[in-house]
Write the structure tokens for this entry.
Amino acid sequence: MLEIRGLTLKYGQSQILRGIDLTARAGEVTVVMGTNGVGKTSLLKAIAGRHPYGKGTIMLDGKPLDHLSAHAAAQAGIAYVPQGREIFPLLTVAENLECGFAGLPRADRTMPERIFELFPVLHEMRHRRGGDLSGGQQQQLAIARALILRPKLLLLDEPTEGIQPNIIQQIGRVIARLREEGGMAILLVEQYFDFAYDLADEFFAMQPGRVSLNVRKAEARREDLLGHVSI
């Protein structure tokens, strides 16, 4: 579903990504791990059109996306759940979800029932303001808003950060269900190794600006993976 070749990215004069190659298959969870500052979030921002990249190509479902903008990425079927969630605190839960309509043709702007099947708490709180939700509930809202787009590719940046354990488990079950349905590729950037390992089909480990390891989970020992991403 996603194929990246030779991707580079700079912040001013600082070279952040140095020729990244990465693939993500539909019906799988592809995990990107590494210590802070290696470029994981920058990679997701480039894919999502949130920051311009330099050289390289991004292909989605066999089609090239040439230096896409954020709105073009959404229209192409790329949904992004950023680190920190970025929900609108003064809008209601329902209004936050409806923001996901912006990337859809007008005829498709309806609320899928499955959103509330995946996240029942959002139905209960749909008239409450986003800022009144707990951090875990806001994370569920951010993921649900992304799913409104019916994406081909779902980008998740640190979805467990600052979240209570029971909500982490719920989010894990949702990601596993989305993978089983097989309609989208899921690219997960995560620091919580056990969470990522349980969900992963394929691992990409990063050192500053580059991919240092690419391996299928079935072909690697857990201890070796943990040691590699902790360097």
About this structure: The chain has a mean pLDDT of 92. The longest helix spans residues 165-181. The CA atoms of residues 17 and 43 lie 7 Å apart.
